[in-house]
Amino acid sequence: MAGAIIENMSTKKLVIVGIVLLLFQAFAFMVGGLIAPSPTTAVHYLATKCVDNQKGHLQGRKWFMPWGPNQCDKIRDFDEAMAKRIEANNIVFSVHIPLPNKEMSPWFQFMLVILQFDIAFKLYNQIEDKAMVTIDVSLAYRDDTVSEWTEMAHSLEQRKLSCNFTTAKIIENEGRYYECDLLPFMEVGTVSHKYYLVNIRLPVNERKKVNVGIGEIKDIRLVGIHQNGGFTKVWFAMKTFLTPSILIIMIWYWRRITMMTRPPVLLEKVIFALGISMTFINIPVEWFSIGFDWTWMLLFGDIRQGIFYAMLLSFWIIFCGEHLMDQTERNRFSMYWKQVGPIVFGSLCLFIFDMCERGVQLTNPFYSIWASDVGTELAMAFIIVAGICACLYFLFLCFMVFQVFRNISGKRTSLPAMTKARRLHYEGLIFRFKFLMLVTLACAAMTVIFFIISQVNEGHWHWGDYTVQINSAFFTGIYGMWNLYVFALMFLYAPSHKRYGDEQSSGDQGGNSGEDIQLTTTITHADGPTEVYRMMGKESQE
Amino acid sequence: MSSGCLFRSLLMLFLALLSANASNWLYLAKLSSVGSISDEETCEKLRGLIQRQVQICKRNVEVMDACQYQFRNRRWNCSTLDSMPVFGKVVTQGTREAAFVYALSAASVAYAVTRACSSGELEKCGCDRNVHGVSPQGFQWSGCSDNIAYGVAFSQSFVDARERGKGQSSSRALMNLHNNEAGRKAILNHMRIDCKCHGVSGSCEVKTCWKAMPPFRKVGNVIKEKFDGATEVEQRKVGTTRVLMPRNSQFKPHTDEDLVYLDPSPDFCEHDPRTPGMLGTVGRFCNKTSKAIDGCELMCCGRGFHTQEVEVVDRCSCKFHWCCYVKCKQCRKMVEMHTCR
Domain residue spans in chain B? Predict the structure, then answer.
């Protein structure tokens, strides 16, 4: 692919393309920062303590409402329960999602809920080491305020209590709360109903050591996190706009390649694959989540992102490899198994981990791999292996980039002595590589910088009357950036129809035959019977 | 509809309490016939309150407990008396103790309202348009602001209303307003920030953070610390506005979070029948070994103390459930008790 558009483009045109892309980039940031609200909202819920007066088990589950009509018999705290001789097994913690006068909406995309216990320190009733709390939890939904609740899920879950008491454990400090870690509680992949009801019980069974030694629980608090409807709308709009743009450039790119007389080389195929994976992410299938109850959407989104990341990482490796300018013949995917292997393996690990977590959550929204010891170890193993793979990959990549630069500086010295065709070829290679290197580094740096800003900052900046949502700007901006990256890549690295050095090459001879051989090895695969080959043919004819 | 009623009745309650001569929980405290409130039945005894209002009342008793907990070792142990005016000179004068009481009270209202919001007992809360920080597009577009913003705004408009009614000029009003705000700051500046990562495979690519209220005990501790370091101030005129400045110009000016007071506190040593609330320290328990204010030396104001051996029946080797079940043996032991003369 000696004649990529980028080499044959005049500087002026290149600058224009760059400016247009930058404008789009700024637009992407502004859409997120100015139009969209913050990406997610966290809502606090304090569980209401209901009393289950039911004697024996009636048919069907009884649902306990914390407020509104048909609300349950409530107690304010457990001293009251003690006075009324209510047992622990008859207490139901009830949370209605959302709060009064609100409705959930499919635009919220997902809902995940965090569980927190307020446990008071009592000198003689402390939390035991490695205490597990067993929760009997059920989730129901309904779509209007009057109909019956329909059960969505019911499960008996275990969660590890990791609490510590920061002050001295003396009688003076009784009543202070432990500081407990947040516990994962529930994850639902679509929010297709308006009202949800969570009922939690903490059954006690002394014989089986269930819920014994968990301290004196004062309250249960939940935090519900969902994506903001406004952000979802902006996000969908962006995807809907980006899909055709990438699709069109992809078709144009592939047409250009097929128009050539030679079969496509590896690098061209990889760029095309990158385009496909980008389109795969872009296609706004999420629109369906507004109408259908597809709980697997969250998992599907993960998979799509994973494929794109893996593709992008592979592309970088192969791009470096194809620009190595040594005598080795590559152009085969199998040549890169050493570098691509870690990517595939790492992605696979993360995929399995994701299936174990979000996959199981399709059937049981309360499941968490972190809840059990074995699960935690397994999850950690997967993540560590993936991390090692990532490190390995970056070592390879850095080494390759270093090699390319070493070869470039080696070539630089011998450039003036070469024939014009050869020189132009190498200069093209060097320029292409350096350009991509620069753009990639800029993109990566932007991603990292924005990531850090969005992590450190409060999430929004006030700027005069405007509030700039940094987190939203991060998401739309970075998403737009990688789209533009792929777009630019396909546009600039598509084969050019212009041919360089055709006329001049005949007059410019004098390189030794050794160099000729070297030239052929590096480019025959790239060009096939096009330019340089033909040039060589001319040379030999003369 | 019922929540609407509740909201209105809550407002009514607060208005009623504020129209009384003392800040709200002091009014409640008045109902107790002993020097301190130990049981919550006090609220049940209130006539004319509906169930929900009783609950709000009980929350205020929790505040009372918080006050008494913080002052358990001091000469003034947050004591109140049955007679009017509620706190006598202790709180009607601009003392340190009054500063504490106002700060704690303002904080407690913010705290209680925020809690009521989270449990769905109040309707508007974070989505109330009158509270700053709410986007006009509503819950579906961008969610609501934190309930704590609402709780604090509520506390500002209702607890501060009485002082504002008096006019800004009185130095006592300025002191109360400052201390109310300091109480609310004790919550706001000690919010815990929790985060949850939920990106691809649970990575921190997407992270949501939120602020959680500290436990009320901690709020009490913070205000108590501010009580210990409170600044004595006096009113001065700067330009056209009246501000509170430290009486001793050597001291650095107080911040928004600090408590301020106008009058030095009495020593609380002797019982003074003319000033209710001044119970004195006669009969109080003290710690023989401590050199601090809870020690017998200081607590008893040098009057000396009685020592007697008392048999205490204590609970021991108990079995607990997380709620509502305790089975204990009774253990007896002899303890030395010191009480002030």
Answer: 2-261, 296-340
Q: Is the pTM of this model over 0.90?
A: no
Per-residue tokens: A521: 């090895």
Average pLDDT of the residues in B261-288: 77
For residue A263, the model assigns a pLDDT of: 86
Of B58, B196, B202, the CB nearest to A225: B196
Q: Do B323 and A47 touch (CB under 8 A)?
A: no
pLDDT tens for each residue of A14-64: 899 999 999 999 999 999 888 888 899 999 999 999 998 876 555 557 899
- Per-residue model confidence (pLDDT) at position A434: 87
What residues of B are in contact with residue A33 (Cβ under 8 Å)? none
Contacts 24+ apart (CB under 8 A), A510-514: A510/A419, A511/A417, A511/A418, A511/A419, A511/A422
Q: Decide: A46 and A71 in contact? Cβ < 8 Å.
A: no
Section B31-43 average pLDDT? 36
Scan residues 143-202 of B and list those with Cβ closer than 8 Å to A.
143-144, 146-147, 194, 196, 198, 200-202
Q: Which amino acid is at A256?
A: R
**B150 neighbourhood in chain A, CB within 8 Å:** none
Give Cβ neighbours of residue B55 (< 8 Å, ≥ 6 apart): A76
What was the pLDDT predicted at A372? Answer: 83
Q: How many CB atoms lie within 10 A of CB A190?
A: 21
Residue-wise burial string across A356-393, b where 16 or more C-beta atoms lie within 10 A, e elsewhere = bbbbebbeebbbbbebbeebeeebeebbebbeebeebb
DSSP structure string for B37-80: ---THHHHH-TT--HHHHHHHHHHHHHHHHHHHHTTTSSS-S--
C-alpha–C-alpha distance, residues A21 and A72, integer Å:
59
Query: Among 2.60.40, 2.60.120, 1.10.3470, 3.30.70, what is the CATH number of A41-227?
Result: 2.60.120
Distance CA A477, CA A491 (A): 20
Residues of chain B found within 8 Å of residue A114, distances taken between Cβ atoms: 194, 196
Whether the ipTM is more than 0.85: the answer is no
Q: What are the residue ranges spanned by the domains of chain A?
A: 5-39+230-537, 41-227
Task: Decide if B43 contacts B57 (C-beta within 8 A).
Answer: yes
CA-to-CA separations, B148 to A290, A451, B108, B110, B162, in angstroms, rounded: 32, 28, 12, 7, 22
Q: What is the pLDDT at residue A235?
A: 94
From B234's Cα to the closest Cα of chain A, the distance in A is 36
Which tokens in the block code for residue A180? 């407990």
Interface contact A302, partner B, CB < 8 A: yes
A88 vs B324: CB contact, 8 Å cut-off? yes
Nearest by CB to residue A46, choosing from B119, B320, B326, is B119
Mark which residues 210-249 of A lie under 8 Å from B by CB: 211-212, 214-217, 221, 223, 225, 228-231, 233
**Residues A189-209, mean pLDDT to the nearest whole number:** 91
User: Cβ A66–B119 below 8 Å, yes or no?
Assistant: yes
> Which helix H or strand E contains B187, and what residues bound it?
helix B171-188
- Domain A5-39+230-537, CATH among 1.10.287, 1.50.10, 1.20.1070, 1.25.40: 1.20.1070
Neighboring chain A residues of B2 at a CB cutoff of 8 Å: 67-69
